[in-house]
Amino acid sequence: MRRATRRSSFLALSAALAFGAVAPAQAATAGPTPELDRAALRSTIVPRPGDGAAGVVAEVHKNGETWRGAAGDVVTGRHLSPRAHFRIGSITKPMEAVILLQLSAEGRVDLDESVQHYLPGLLPEDRFKEPISVRQLLNHTSGLPQDLEGAPAATPDEEIEQLLGYVTFDEVIRETLRPESRPGPGPRFSPGTRQEYNSFGYRIAGKLIEEITGHSYQYEATTRILKPLKMRDTRAAVPNRSTPVPRPYLPGYLANSGGDLVDVNVQGGLPASMTSTTADLDRFISGLFDGRLLPPAQTAELFAIPKGIDGKPLPYADGSHCNIGPGKGTACFSVGLMSTPLPNGSLLWGKTGSDPGYRSGVFASRDLNLRAVYAVGTAGPIDGVPAVAQRLALAAFGS
Predict the structure, then answer these.
(1) Quick check: 94 and 101 in contact, CB under 8 A?
(2) Rounded CA gap, 184 and 182, in Å?
(3) What tens digit of pLDDT does each residue of 31-87 get?
(4) Between the chain's N and C termini, which has fewer beta carbons within 10 Å?
(5) pTM of the full predicted structure?
(6) DSSP 3-state assignment of 324?
(7) Per residue, what are the HEC states of 136-150?
């Protein structure tokens, strides 16, 4: 079985703003100064050699102005629509967090209660002796192993074939904690002492949602988030099936063992897997920040970076990934979101996502005056920050 997710490109916006990959966009010279240079934004999303991008869709909102664009497909030459659908990867994590925060507001979940209390026997007691709280699942301080930690890597052909499989929360949990062909992993660190991005914690969070509500994750996400926010172009994975990205779609490609590019828009995924559009993800982050989804106490959890007993942000596990400048090496994830600094000292909050063939992100300022959503369909390897996201961030927010 393939790894259920890949590590997202955490610093897609902040790295671009901090290191100045390209010059900031210049404002128009005639008439009132526009907030957005549309020509510059358009040029940033055109795939360039070395980007690893087949196509891009994006939208930016700045102080009341809106821009949307699309570019590609460089593999087939097909025109892409700004309304194209794509796989959103770990952008579903804030949705899982929202559901548990709502359950907390309803008095059905205590974020400080342990996973062992709610799901007895799920964590092997001989290896996981310390309690892990629900909040620690959501803010990446659990110390749990990563998805399928220690599993052998798949060949390119195996990975493409395995994308068609649908994997339940129970299957990922069992194959990670109690694998048949290798020793089961233990904690990576003591819970609550460090932060390390961890998708496996969200598999357990998804299982917890289903256990507490008695409903599928898809049902809870649809009734609690998608319908209230009128996210009509966002769809959850279909259990036990592989499905295509709805048309019009952003194609994403992986290379097979022979080097040929294969369109991998048809996938199975996990119960939390989703397809969406830039417009719908903008609706999500807007509804999340303006209080339509959560009461004030639970909304505050979205912007609370975990701290140690000394009152300082926890260290990030390997001293990297989170933050840049003076904050480098300290926690940048809250419950469900990550913080990204702007040059003026303010923060954007949001989440990146990564599914095979796709890289995406959605970020906004707390007052929602600055918002950006992007998705990249891959045509080659993308390690670290997508170049397209760097250019887009600078053109949108770098001046």
Answers:
(1) no
(2) 6
(3) 455 689 999 999 999 999 999 999 999 999 999 999 999 999 999 999 999 999 999
(4) C
(5) 0.91
(6) coil
(7) HHHCCCCCCCCCCCC
